[in-house]
UniProtKB/TrEMBL annotation, chain B:
Residues 1-22 form the signal peptide. The lineage of its organism: Bacteria, Bacillati, Bacillota, Bacilli, Bacillales. PANTHER family: ARABINOSE-BINDING PROTEIN-RELATED, SUGAR BINDING SECRETED PROTEIN. Keywords: Signal. It comes from Paenibacillus terricola. It holds the Pfam family SBP_bac_8. This is Carbohydrate ABC transporter substrate-binding protein.
Length: 296, 435
């Protein structure tokens, strides 16, 4: 027997080595990722303050639907999502097409300049934005000096303008990040396709909509899913620029989770329920986006 | 290939060296708790604000070290939000490793800790005497008749006023003594008309002013039990909101959105008054060019509210001992310093302007000193006097929860929603939120 199947034994040994290599990663991920996820799911069925927790079944999930702060946070998050994500994706695509032009000079400089916001710390840029958009901040000063407005806009303390400020801030921060994906995808599109289109007499606009957009479809899907997830998890900007206010006009779901755990008397069970509501929303939205994008 | 191996090995050795080093680090810090019962005792204490609470703690440490050289106290500065987070996660996980022996907790939050984590804090009833402290501090620092906290600073509120701006508008400081908010609003309109300056600042997210107004009349967001929301049919809160709306609609308020804008507004002379806790004194005095132009008058009362007095509170915090090894030593430290040492409070007042709530401290020399910045007014003595008059309320465990709900409804109210509807909506939301 020993000499009969040396090949198989070697193969088994090779497999075993493979298992050993991924074992560390698997154990780590299971211990620090899946285990807490399951614990959080269990926690979401419990209620109580601090350490005095007890099971309540689905009560926490029922509470979500009558919790007006939660509903307001969901509404705000969807407003950001519906307005900000499309604007940012169109903008990123537009800029990347401009930057991909082979005749453009200082390409490296422009690319770096537009990507640069992405490397700034979330907290640092939020604080700068807060001061730029303050009642007597630079933006208001500029607009008044240009005679575009007569009284300063309450960018931070008015419910409507506060949302606008948040949308401007996250668009500034993330457009460059998405642009990089489009740029790399654009460079993979064969130039001969455009050449053929030009010979056929297609205009630049026609080329963009008939060649660029269809070929970028997987990237559009990818960026819209990651941006959607990012928006659902929005936290730093809200906390640092508006603190969720005025009232709860800009509060995001993540900030509400933080408040439930740490700002109010600690209710970790319900906070976990709210976290799982985000998970459910992300799953649903991702499925919708996959379906809408077609390709399977 | 060999080179790669050597490199790998070298980095491995380096890594293990690093990690063993950090292991040593944690074991010594754990040692602080273990050695507490032996010869030298080591305690850790957490507080926020380097110029105020942390400094106070360090001064107390020095005072204690003179008599008890065998106790070592490690004072660590953490932001308040970090302390709240670390305490919550630490106590919730059931492991007390990494938690301090002594911790500072804000009065508004104290009950939520005491009730959410029973047995996590050490009962100090036999260590300090609750009646030695201002009465209003006992509500938040005790639970079920047991005293858990050593009351620290007073958040007694006053109205800081700019004498020069008032005089330009035809008023004197005397005109603001013992008045109600209607009168203040009237003065604010005159100030705005004559000088163009706002009366005061408000941050729409922070209802501190409303909190001060209702406490001045002995009311709170919750009933006596600290957990039943008390918003609908709360005549005092209703009066406070009406006054707040009158103030906001009089066009005499400068809207701010954070602390630095708040401080900036009075430092740059944009507002004529600052209604807030006495801990703002240091920030007011930071603008030396305004020396002599300020005065402090008693907190205005709520109009049409007989129970409202000229004293209220904003903020303030107290010291707590965690129920872990070293608790006796920690309790003794607090007993001999913040719990009874009136001289320490004199120094605290001189060095950092802190006003304690230990009654015995009020008769000390520092408390009766005149302050030239405030035109020779004995502000500490005034604040100490008002501290004793602050109505005692039970902050309960839901102050910030209810305030966030109320802040939304207050915005609706300012936009025209009927007040009764505002309060009943806030009430029903609070009832679904609080279990």
């Amino acid at each position: 027997m020993k000499t009969a199947k040396p090949g198989i034994k070697l193969m088994n040994k090779g497999r075993l080595t493979g298992w050993w290599f991924i074992a560390i990663a698997v154990i780590m991920i299971a211990a620090f990722y899946f285990y807490p996820m399951i614990q959080a799911l269990l926690l979401s069925f419990k209620t109580g303050k601090g350490a005095n927790l007890h099971f309540t079944g689905l009560d926490n999930y029922k509470r979500l639907f009558s919790d007006r702060t939660f509903l307001a946070a969901v509404k705000n998050t969807f407003i950001y999502l519906i307005i900000q994500v499309p604007v940012m994706i169109v903008l990123a695509m537009f800029i990347s097409v401009l930057l991909n032009d082979s005749k453009l000079k200082f390409k490296g400089f422009f690319r770096t300049a537009i990507f640069l916001p992405c490397v700034t710390s979330l907290v640092a840029y939020s604080i700068v934005f807060k001061y730029l958009f303050g009642a007597d901040g630079l933006v208001n000063m500029l607009l008044t000096k240009l005679h575009l407005i007569s009284a300063p806009i309450q960018w931070i303390t008015d419910p409507f303008w506060a949302k606008v400020t948040i949308i401007i801030a996250i668009t500034w921060r993330w457009t460059g990040y998405n642009m990089i994906f489009y740029l790399s995808a654009l460079q993979n599109i064969d130039n001969s396709i455009y050449e053929a289109a030009r010979i056929d007499g297609a205009s630049a606009v026609r080329q963009f909509f008939s060649i660029t957009v269809p070929l970028l479809k997987p990237i559009i899907l990818f960026t819209s899913i990651t941006s959607t997830i990012g928006t659902l998890q929005l936290f730093d900007e809200i906390v640092n620029i508006t603190k969720g206010g005025p009232g709860n006009a800009t509060m995001s779901i993540s900030q509400y989770i933080y408040n439930l755990s740490f700002k109010y008397s600690p209710d970790f069970g319900y906070a976990a329920t709210v976290s799982y509501s985000i998970v459910i929303m992300i799953v649903i939205l991702s499925i919708v986006q996959f379906k809408a994008a077609g390709d399977k | 290939m060999k080179k790669v191996l050597v490199l790998l090995l070298a980095s491995f050795v380096l890594l293990t060296a690093c990690s063993s080093k950090s292991d040593n680090g944690t074991s010594t810090s754990e040692g602080t708790n273990d050695t507490a019962s032996k010869g030298t005792k080591a305690l850790t204490a957490w507080a926020w604000d380097a110029n105020f609470n942390v400094k106070a703690l360090n001064m107390a440490k020095d005072a204690y070290a003179a008599q008890n050289p065998d106790v070592k106290i490690d004072v660590q500065e953490n932001a308040q939000a970090d302390i709240v987070q670390k305490l919550n996660t630490g106590l919730n996980s059931g492991t007390t490793k990494g938690l301090p022996n002594i911790v500072l907790i804000e009065d508004y939050r104290a009950q939520s800790f005491l009730q959410a984590y029973p047995d996590a804090f050490y009962d100090l009833s036999s260590v300090i005497n609750a009646s030695d402290f201002a009465d209003y501090k006992i509500g938040p620092t005790s639970l079920d008749g047991k005293q858990y906290g050593v009351p620290f600073d007073s958040g007694v509120a006053g109205l800081y006023v700019r004498k020069d701006l008032l005089e330009q508008s035809g008023y004197k400081v005397e005109d603001l003594q013992d008045v109600n908010w209607d009168k203040i609003i009237e003065i604010g309109k005159a100030v705005k008309a004559k000088t163009g300056k706002a009366l005061l600042t408000q941050d729409p997210n922070d209802l501190g002013l409303i909190r001060m107004m209702i406490q001045s009349a002995g009311s709170w967001y919750t009933k006596e039990d600290g957990s039943t929301p008390n918003l609908k049919d709360n005549a005092i809160l209703k009066q406070a909101l009406e006054t707040y709306k009158k103030l906001m609609e009089a066009d005499i308020v400068k809207v701010t959105s954070d602390w630095s804008q708040f401080v900036g507004a009075f430092n740059s002379g944009d507002v004529a008054t600052v209604p807030t806790g006495n801990w703002i004194t240091a920030s007011v005095k930071a603008e030396a060019s305004q020396s002599g132009q300020w005065a402090v008058v008693p907190f205005p009362t709520l109009p049409n509210t007989p129970s409202s007095v000229h004293a209220s509170n904003l903020g303030g915090s107290s010291w707590y001992v965690l129920n872990i090894d070293g608790k006796e030593a920690a309790a003794d430290f607090l007993k001999q310093t913040f719990g009874s040492n009136a001289d320490l409070y004199q120094n605290l007042n001189k060095e950092i302007g802190a006003i304690g709530t230990l009654k015995a401290a009020a008769s000390g020399e520092a408390y009766s000193a005149a302050d030239e910045f405030f035109g020779g007014q004995k502000i500490t003595a005034d604040f100490a006097k008002w501290t004793e008059q602050i109505p005692r309320v039970n902050y309960g465990m839901h102050t910030y929860e209810i305030e966030d709900l109320l802040a939304v409804e207050v915005q609706n109210y300012l936009n025209g929603k009927a007040l009764d509807k505002v309060l009943s909506d806030a009430q029903s939301q609070a009832e679904t939120q609080i279990h």
